Amino acid sequence: NAGVTQTPKFQVLKTGQSMTLQCAQDMNHNSMYWYRQDPGMGLRLIYYSASEGTTDKGEVPNGYNVSRLNKREFSLRLESAAPSQTSVYFCASSSPGAVMGGTEAFFGQGTRLTVV
Amino acid sequence: KNEVEQSPQNLTAQEGEFITINCSYSVGISALHWLQQHPGGGIVSLFMLSSGKKKHGRLIATINIQEKHSSLHITASHPRDSAVYICAVRSTTSGTYKYIFGTGTRLKVLA
Hints:
heterodimer; A: four-stranded antiparallel sheet; B: mainly beta
């Protein structure tokens, strides 16, 4: 099925461990995003990539790094996980011009990460 | 104060009721989106609006640019409509690829 594929769906890390969240889209979108969702707060942008080869910081980038491996794939890395990074992470993609796909799904299913 | 405010935060309705969810924003925008987050966590884009009104099935979305307000209506609500509905704006002051999200309205429709 077309859309955004995000892995893993669940992950538990110990403080200080590292991990990479993977995201791939098959809609030929230029722009990709990583968000985190915390209780009582709206989705907050961590990093985004406007096109292949470019990445930029979002609202809450500290403690994260990203790689736009190619047009399809955009990964998020936690080098040294902290309990404050416990959250649900969403990858998203869109076409230039910020049309979020109309009625099409453009978010991944989310990764529920717990750091203990 | 959040730049995107939704009301109500929680809403319980009986099957068949007409439902309205509101979104107010305080920034200049080029587009507003309504998203649906299912209980399993997946997020689906329902509408993108820059003016006027759009309809898709039992869902209707309206926007008033002058009043900086949008509403999402659900007619003949059904338990499968139970989800979190999120308003997101593409702010003209926050950069080309950035959006500001509301905290969501949790809707529960009872059979």
